[in-house]
Amino acid sequence: MKKLFTFISIILLLALSACGNPTPKKPGETAKSSGGGTKTITIAGNGGVIEKAIRDVIAPKYKEETGITINYLPGLSGEILSKVELQKNAPQIDIALFVPVDVQRAKDKGLTDTLDESNVPNMKNVKPDLVAVEGAAAPVFGLVIAPAYNTESFKKNNLKPIQSWNDLASGDYKGKTAFADISNDWGFNTLYGLALANGGSVDNMEPGLKKAKELAGFSSTFYKNSTQMMPAVQQGTADVTVMGSYAIGELALSGIPIKMAVPKEGVPLQAFSAAIVKNNSHYDEALKFINYLISEDSQKLISEKGFYPVVEGVELPKEYEESIGLKESDKTFKPDFAKFAEIRAEWSDRWAKEVTPELGKLLK
After folding, report:
1. Does residue 141 surpass a pLDDT of 60?
2. 60 has which bridge partners?
3. What is the pLDDT of residues 306-326, one digit of tens each?
4. Average pLDDT, the chain
5. Mean of the pLDDT values across residues 181-195?
6. What are the sequence ranges of the domains in the chain?
7. 17 pLDDT above the threshold of 80
8. What pLDDT is recorded for position 37?
9. How far apart are CA 252 and CA 315, in angstroms?
10. CA distance 26 to 77
11. CATH class label, 143-269+326-358
């Protein structure tokens, strides 16, 4: 009897030990959901139109097909990059949606894993011009950053359509502008556009900064993000702006008489891109979801929200053609995002010190 009691005790101890000390998960191994519940992967990306596209359209369809729930955390690209860096030893984000400069920064910091055709097969269908950094992320939401103007106001005031980035710095608009601060990707691309229009380049942004001071002089403020800028356009506070094409398209569909302008110097073609966070807990599911985002079916759904499709064979819906459609004659270019990442801090600092103080000085 004593031997039997001892044997049972040993069995119980072994069982308890197994429950209290689960086998550690290997790097890259897919995490199991507790209690047989639904698996969840977390994606962090911009709010607004992008959040709605994923949360309200893509995620429900994906859950229906796979049983996997998508948890979406909205935020600005730079903020998301900071979170990923802070969590690098215990990632809580599986997929990060970055603007191109932050794709480069994340790669340089070693925060993301390689992503290419070998682990995301649909990458073979992606348009090369939209790939920000080779092997670092998959473009998902295609766009250009471009000027836009209120067509009715321009007609009423007999103003010519915008033909150059230099046209943005004008007293004709009487302070009715909505330009982004340099901390926003739209603002940095505005600086770059002004540099190109005045003989500058990514290696010489000085001409752009000089023109930006004039731009500031004719502006009452710089806006921090789209949630501030879009209402300014909707409410008629601003007739001229620089935005992502998808935001212009959304405003146009809402009934605002707004049209994108493609300056003769061109507009930067790019995409919000999905990067896989290194050492995340749902590696395989994250890769599959990125592959799903750049499938033909998903890109058709995403294009209905005003984004340029990133894969061949999918077209921008006709309702967006008038406001943000790109013609063959329109000039686009792919910026040097590695160089952008290298110089951004320096020029952002100079903008804050030299450009922002000039706000409204030419309106007096």
Report:
1. yes
2. none
3. 999 999 999 999 999 999 999
4. 90
5. 96
6. 41-142+270-319, 143-269+326-358
7. no
8. 53
9. 18
10. 29
11. alpha beta
- Which residues are paired to 204 by β-bridges? 201
d(CA 283, CA 281): 6
Report, in angstroms and rounded to the nearest whole number, the Rg of the chain calculated over CA atoms.
24
Q: What percent of the chain has pLDDT over 90?
A: 87
Q: Are strands 240-244 and 332-333 parallel, antiparallel or unpaired?
A: unpaired
For 110, the token pair is 């070693």
Q: Both tokens of residue 248?
A: 């212009």
Q: Which two tokens stand for residue 13?
A: 């101890």
- pLDDT of residue 9 exceeding 90: no
Per this entry, what is the length of the chain? 364
What pLDDT sits at residue 176? Answer: 95
Query: Distance between CA 142 and CA 53 in Å, rounded?
Result: 13
Q: Cα–Cα distance between 174 and 112 in angstroms, integer? A: 45
Tell me the CATH class for 41-142+270-319. Answer: alpha beta
Q: Which residues contact 208 (CB under 8 A, 6 or more apart)?
A: 191, 192, 193, 194, 195, 196, 197, 198, 200
Distance CA 100, CA 133 (A): 8
Q: What is the pLDDT of residues 38-48, one digit of tens each?
A: 699 999 999 88
Q: What is the 3-state secondary structure (H, E, C) of the chain?
A: CHHHHHHHHHHHHHHHHHHHCCCCCCCCCCCCCHHHCCCEEEEEECCCHHHHHHHHHHHHHHHHHHCCEEEEEECCHHHHHHHHHHCCCCCCCCEEEECHHHHHHHHHCCCECCCCCCCCHHHHHECHHHCCCCCCCEEEEEEEEEEEEEHHHHHHCCCCCCCCHHHHCCHHHCCCEEEECCCCHHHHHHHHHHHHHCCCECCECHHHHHHHHHHHHCCCCEECCHHHHHHHHHCCCCCEEEEEHHHHHHHHHCCCCEEECCCCCCEEEEEEEEEEECCCCCHHHHHHHHHHHCCHHHHHHHHCCCCECCECCCCCCHHHHHHHCCCCCCCEECCCHHHHHHHHHHHHHHHHHHHHHHCCCCCC
Q: Grade residue 133 by pLDDT with cuts at 50, 70 and 90.
A: very high
